[in-house]
Design a protein that fits this description.
The chain is mainly beta. It contains 5 helices and 27 strands. The strands form 4 sheets. The chain has a 19-stranded parallel sheet that branches. The chain has a 4-stranded parallel sheet with strand order 6-11-13-15. Strands 1-27 form a two-stranded antiparallel sheet. The longest helix is centred in the first third of the chain and has 13 residues. The chain binds 2-acetamido-2-deoxy-beta-D-glucopyranose (5 copies). Pfam families: Glyco_hydro_28, Pect-lyase_RHGA_epim.
Length: about 500
Amino acid sequence: MPCNKSLIHPLSATAMELLWISPVKPRAANVVTVLVVLALLSVKGAESRKGRILESFEYNAMSCRAHSASITDFGGVGDGQTSNTKAFQDAIDHLSQYASDGGSQLYVPAGKWLTGSFSLTSHFTLFLHKDAVLLASQNLNEWPLLKPLPSYGRGRDAAAGRYASLIFGTNLTDVIIAGDNGTIDGQGAFWWQKFHQGKLKYTRPYLIEIMYSDGIQISNLTLLNSPSWNVHPVYSSDILVQGITILAPVRSPNTDGINPDSCTNVKIEDCYIVSGDDCVAVKSGWDEYGIAFGMPTKQLIIRRLTCISPYSATIALGSEMSGGIQDVRAEDITAINTESGVRIKTAVGRGGYVKDIYVKRMIMHTMKWAFWMTGNYGSHADKNYDPNALPVIQGINYRDMVADNVSMAARLEGISGDPFKEICISNVTIGMAAKAKKIPWTCTEIEGITSGVTPRPCDLLPDQRPEELTECDFPPEDIPIDSVKLQKCSYGMHYM
Ligand SMILES: *[C@@H]1O[C@H](CO)[C@@H](O)[C@H](O)[C@H]1NC(C)=O
Ligand SMILES: *[C@@H]1O[C@H](CO)[C@@H](O)[C@H](O)[C@H]1NC(C)=O
Ligand SMILES: *[C@@H]1O[C@H](CO)[C@@H](O)[C@H](O)[C@H]1NC(C)=O
Ligand SMILES: *[C@@H]1O[C@H](CO)[C@@H](O)[C@H](O)[C@H]1NC(C)=O
Ligand SMILES: *[C@@H]1O[C@H](CO)[C@@H](O)[C@H](O)[C@H]1NC(C)=O
């Protein structure tokens, strides 16, 4: 039964009684419920049905919606067994008619909702109840195939196409995936095993991928065991990722947390990530394909991120950076038992640039390297990369950091004939592990300065006198996404 324009189905007397006698705790959400019920008393001509329970709540979002429906209105069954792929796609196809009429929201109640990949629409919100779990199907027929991304030229696991992500969107405006910490479970072991056995014909799906879109919010969700990357906004702008918990085994393959890729004006805030790959990996395409596509990632802010990733980086820039990465600001970052803090990964043949990078107030416990820059990452899309396409790495600023139990303070390796320039590191104290390497810094093909850094940096990063350098740069002004105010959206719905 599709939703109707009145938003909320008329209530029967039975439902009213159920509501009034239910043992409610005095919380704001219940006050809203009562108001909705009172409003409904005036609805006339109500067709009454037994067993309806009204539920309502509030959440914060970039935009609120005029039309609502629940996945159960479209035949969804939350038993963990029944496939809901068709229910999701039917619901969203139906709700897409409201794009120019106030938009719509699709509610996923408590339950286990098995589903394959489905596609979102514009001016749309997918909202997960706190006890809702989307379970990724293991039936390959429920995963449509997509062409390789143009800026990559091929899939990362296999040259041919790639499986569409569990939640997919392309060419959208104003799309929100939000929850009261509801869960999206990729059931990744199935895919990791195929990957390790070399049995994949196509590249593994991601949990969330939104392409060619503008105005994206992904908030207050828990993402579990993704087959591969977790959140992948690509060729998009005006993006808010907030309050996301990402959990995957630290040995799981390529389970990157959040990968903004050829995106502009992006804010990633208040996320907690435990994963088998980089917690945040900033990207912009691969070798000759990325150079030809030429779309950078720029204006990115990462705030209050906690990362645990023993075999990867807290924040990686690259290795696919051929469209360029510029103006990345990260602050109040905590890394625990993680291989490296900030890592720049690139190679001859990548072209592009990584410039104007600013990181401050980072706390690191138990790390292999606090800072790592790799100019010989290799890993090419194919043999046709241009050996003359050298990346420009310039304007890298790190300040106000403390670290303890670190094996090596820094390993900074530029490219011969293409040094990484304008590196600035100030006010950084790195406590070395008992079994630390004898030489805490190794530096080749880099240029820059330091101030107030312990242990003493390499000779290529000479310490400045305090009157010449007090602190490395960090831009004081906001990026545009910082001034977007979230609205309080309310949601009233019924279910059987
Ligand atoms: C996410 O949840 C937190 C804590 O409940 C809340 O403060 C925040 O406003 C929520 N964010 C959004 C975008 O709803
Ligand atoms: C989406 O937008 C891109 C870039 O503008 C365009 O190349 C592509 O054809 C569009 N795809 C669809 C499905 O409309
Ligand atoms: C969300 O759920 C995850 C997994 O259960 C939990 O670790 C996390 O603390 C929860 N986050 C919030 C803000 O409640
Ligand atoms: C140096 O960094 C520490 C740790 O982040 C911070 O508490 C302190 O205020 C910084 N000092 C200056 C002079 O900025
Ligand atoms: C220091 O790091 C080592 C691993 O490199 C770990 O085994 C040890 O527990 C850490 N010590 C502390 C005090 O965190």
